[in-house]
Amino acid sequence: MTSTRSIGKFEYKKPGSLRTTLRILSNKGADARILAGGTDLIPQIKQGQISPSLVLDVKNVPELNRLDWNEDRGLRIGAAVPLSKLLTFVAISERYSILAQACSVIGSMQIRNRGTIGGNICNAAPSADSAPALLCLGARAIVASKNGNRKINLDDFFMAPGKTSIGADELLVEIEVPTPPAHSAGCYMRHTTREEMDIAVAGVASFLTIAPRSKKLKEVRIALGAVAPTPLRVHGAEALLIGKSVTERIIEEVAEEAAEEAKPISDIRASAEYRRELVKVLTRRTLWKSCEMLGIEIQR
Amino acid sequence: MAKYSVVGKRIPRIDALSKVTGTAIYSGDVTLPDMLYGKVCRSPHAHAIIRRLDVTKARSLEGVMAVITASDVPGYKNRSPLLLVEMPHLAQEKVVYAAQPVAVVAATSIEIAEKAVGLIEVEYEELPPVLDVLESMKPETPPIYPDLYTNFIARPPTDKDSKPSNIAYHISVNRGDLEAGFREADLIIENTFRTQPIHHGYLEPFAAVAKADVNGKVTIWTQTQGVFTARQMIAEFLGLPPTQVKLVPVEIGGAFGGKSYLPLAPLCALLAMKTGRPVRMEMSRDEVLRDGRPAPGSVTTIKIGVTKKGYITAASATFIYDAGGFPEMSHTMFVRGNTFSQYKIPNIKIEAFDVLTNTVPVTYYRAPSTPQSHFAIESQMDLISRALGMDPLQFRIQNSTAEGDTTPSGEILPKVGFKETLERMAEYLRQKGSLQGENRGRGVACGFWHGAAGSFGAYVNVNIDGTVTLVIGVTDVSGSRTSIAQIVAEEFGIPMEAVSIVVGDTDTAPWSSPSVGSQTIYSLSHAVYRACQDAKDQLRRLASPRLGVPASEIEFANGQAIFKGDTQKSIPLAALGRSSLGFRGEGPIVGRGSIAGLPPAPSVAVHAVDVEVDKETGKVKVLSYAVAQDVGLAINPMSIEGQIQGAVTQGIGWALMEGYVFDRGKVQNTTFLDYRMPTATDVPMIDTMLVEVGSTTGIYGLRHVGEPPMVGTLAAVANAIHSATGVRLKTLPMTPEAILKGIKKQGKS
Ligand SMILES: Cc1cc2nc3c(=O)[nH]c(=O)nc-3n(C[C@H](O)[C@H](O)[C@H](O)COP(=O)(O)OP(=O)(O)OC[C@H]3O[C@@H](n4cnc5c(N)ncnc54)[C@H](O)[C@@H]3O)c2cc1C
User: Fold this and answer.
1) What atom in ligand 1 is closest to the CA of residue A130?
2) Rounded to the nearest 5 degrees, what angle is found at the Cα of B589, between the Cα atoms of B585 and B595?
3) Do B679 and A194 touch (CB under 8 A)?
4) B298-451+600-748: CATH class
5) Residues paired with residue B622 on neighbouring β-strands, in sequence order
6) Residue A202's domain spans which residues?
7) Which residues of chain A have a CB within 8 Å of the CB of B657?
8) B177-197: average pLDDT
9) Is residue A3 part of a domain?
10) Could you tell me the fold of the domain covering B35-128+206-282?
11) Number of structural domains, chain A?
């Protein structure tokens, strides 16, 4: 149950440079909260879940507003880039359709105009819609503190609901997404009760790379959302597919295995049993769809 | 049908511009100098005895100006709080639902008020909560109130053998010979249906501002569906004569029956009286969902018998409504007039109960009790037509009642358009053709609403520029001002722009019943019509000597009083308005009209919905939706279409996704994320067909409009899901998870 009280007093700062931001964080990181779009943070403050003494707005930090792509380095998304801006970036719709698709279902137009992909992953909700797609794409978080930068593989980023491996004095600067290899494709599907303005009851992203001649699967990534304390990859299910030609039977086995590896809970939105069932259905559907995108004929 | 020039036109709402530009004034916009802020301290338990309540620490906090508890409420002195309806119930010896108010603070800031609430010390002794109606009804279940007897709220019955009970109200209806009726039947089907408590989903949370003047008169700004009933109830709570309380109308951000309840205004007023300063209170969404009263959940068992040819021979039904913690808002009282009235059923037995539980008390919501009862009735009608292999609409048409038939409540039906409306839908579906595609299904259902009628007054002033001002005392929750203005414009033969409407406060406006029961336009239009005739008679008397024609030969058009025999002989209303004020004039032209005791004009709305069900996830997509409704005469078709589309959207939410989730009586989903209402992406465009079988009692033949379209939605959606999947769901909401469970179960059997 939530309870909405009036917001307590806090200090608000909006520095214009990365250096100042990092200096503030090194002094006051423990009591501060970073504000990007605020679509997670402000409701949390209003509902009394957190009451920071300092709100540090990072929207004016130039490094966090970068958005570029080149073949070698891949895609770099500044942590404060609004989702709607991301969605109009040509490189994303051309080369990262799975990510575009995942980001396009977040909230509504209004939410996407404010919310950022950085906020989505730093908030670390198990249901964060961009996370399964980013996990599939092998994304890395570039994190900075006064003492320098480090890179975190997204596989090592999510720790628990609302918890990431970013330290209190650190800041997510950007997300790096390697250019997907040739002959690869994938997609994200989620289940919600309401079409929009809802939170995934379960979400699945699948991403496949094939050997062009043999049409066998070279690389397979399957990631789940909302069915475990963190977004997660299902390595067991992935392994079942690697090196194989796709058949209907294998897809079924993989879907079963993914459901097996999920660790869902029952809550007011759905039962664990139903969530597991959804993982199976959505894994199957994303795999079929990915194969279709790659022009693979699935043997029945 | 007569030709009208303004009535019947699609005219945008006159309040639309101020609302979309944010200039309209709502309760939460009102601020007064030196205002204090109030906050409620609420019970964390669903059922508990209050052992100790200590407000001294809260009272001594700097900035706190008053703390009140039940012992400060004058209205509780000589009468049971059970009789103060639609009011907050400040707990006395015990709390009967979670979030029940226990104390209220007024302070110089909202932060201080919140802090003071935290300093209030309450020791509770928890009691086991009664959470299920069937459990609560059992004679061995301890009564929540030791002095509540069925149908005798707060006054013991004369019958010595009566025992206190959790059944607040009970009614029964018997007609014909039930047993004989079932013996005649070739097929008898019996089922139990359940619905969940449901929130109205109005956007605007409750708010109130109150001030007490030096003479002791209290003025209150708050959203309410009826300023005069609110005045009455608040005056009783405060122990003041009604006219010592003044309600000032403000715009209302959605009501649907939920805003006759006044959770804050009486508390605000009492704090203002105690402190001598204006006080404002506002509810958060969380508070609205915990203590804004929902529509009741229900359990209905229904049995219907039919002949092979599809004629109903007998029906029996037991309707049980979950009243929550207080008995005041009876739903059984609507059952008699709203159950089985659209069908010819010679033998009938109806039982209905309002049963108390330790959950949030309920209130009325758009056709109270009737969507719940029709979920059962219309699902059952569908099951029967399937069993008989009959077209569901034909089955309904051949059993439908008409003028002169007697309803279960013993009422003789006036002129109604049930058959016409059912046939209109049948024709629509014939043209549309059958539904193609896998996992798709169509459902139909028919909703009846009897309607209510109230007492209303109206004044009209004919102004010196020939415009007309109407003064009424009814707040606008549904676009009523626009439709009423159309009637005024029609009657005076002036354009819409020449009519202005003032919703007065309780000191200046004529008495009005609240805006409930789809009675507003239906009843108010009579008072307004009469006021218009009164003013027109005065205008005719003024115009007659000037035109040199008899008064009875004068009509009104194009802003003029015109001689019927020769339209060249005319005089502008402005001239008449001005001349009435001169030294030799007859004085201002003021028309007045009143109405009470109008017989209602019942109506049906027939629904048809096409859905597609994802058989692997259970998710329902509503593909298309159509409603045919007998509206008598559409004053403003656009406004009625909006009413129908809004009601269907609310019904789709009720059917598929909405519902309170309780844990030991406490509401768990107190945000609009988890109290899930549909958005525009969940509903298709809703087609409407306005059938106009004029009533004999409404002005121009109009009927009740706002509530009928809510009634049939729940069953229509359930029937469509059955068509698509073969699964019959008898419990709401029909969530993807519930539907998938049904599909899997069916696969096994
Ligand atoms: C109505 C509504 C609908 C929504 N629907 C969805 C949905 O469908 N799917 C979904 O996944 N989410 C949804 N959300 C949640 C939210 O909108 C998204 O998670 C969004 O991407 C958050 O981004 P933001 O910029 O608003 O984050 P903020 O609220 O600004 O921040 C979120 C968290 O991340 C931290 N943070 C932000 N930036 C950084 C940084 N650079 N370094 C370190 N920490 C940082 C903040 O301190 C905070 O804890 C919805 C929210 C609302 C209100």
Assistant:
1) 11
2) 150
3) yes
4) alpha beta
5) B611
6) 184-294
7) 193-194
8) 98
9) no
10) Aldehyde Oxidoreductase; domain 3 (3.90.1170)
11) 3
Domain boundaries, chain B: 35-128+206-282, 298-451+600-748, 453-595
User: How close is the Cα of A156 to the center of ligand 1, in Å?
Assistant: 19
Residues A252 and A235 in one domain: yes
Query: What residues of chain B, 273 to 292, have a C-beta less than 8 Å from chain A?
Result: 284-287
Q: Return the DSSP state at B291.
A: H
Structural domain includes residue A79: yes
Decide if A203 is inside a domain. yes
Helices (H), chain A: 18-28, 41-46, 83-87, 90-95, 97-104, 109-114, 117-122, 130-136, 235-241, 248-261, 272-294
pTM value surpassing 0.95: yes
Q: Is the CB of B111 inside 8 Å of chain A's CB atoms? A: yes
Q: Which of A45, A123, A165, A224 to mutate to test the pocket of ligand 1 (most atoms within 8 A of CB)?
A: A123
A2 part of a folded domain: no
Give the C-alpha separation, A258 to A250, whole Å.
12
Q: Which residues in A lie closer than 8 A to residue B678 (C-beta atoms)?
A: 194
B111/A274 CB distance under 8 A: no
CB distance B634 to B640 below 8 Å: yes
Please check whether residues A168 and A249 belong to one and the same domain: no
CATH (domain of A225)? 3.30.390.50
- Evaluate whether B298-451+600-748 and B453-595 have a shared fold: yes
- Tracing tokens 């932060």 back to the chain, one arrives at B111
- Interface A–B counts its CB contacts (< 8 A) at 60
Cα angle A151, A153, A158; round to 5: 110
| pLDDT for the residue A4 | 53
Structure confidence at residue B2 (pLDDT): 56
A271: chain B residues, CB-CB within 8 Å? 737
Q: Under an 8 A CB cutoff, do B682 and A195 touch?
A: yes
In degrees, rounded to 5, the angle at the alpha carbon of residue B652 between the alpha carbons of residues B646 and B654 is: 105
- Domain B453-595 architecture: 2-Layer Sandwich (3.30)
> Which residue of A1, A3, A193 is in closest CB contact with B736?
A193
For β-strands B121-126 and B48-54, DSSP reports them as antiparallel
CATH number at residue A159: 3.30.465.10
**Any idea which of A74-78, B153-157, B384-388 has the lowest mean pLDDT?**
B153-157
Tens digits of residue pLDDT in B361-397: 999 999 999 999 999 999 999 999 999 999 999 999 9
**Mean of pLDDT over chain A:** 95
Of B321 and A46, the one with more pLDDT: B321
CATH of the domain at A39: 3.30.43
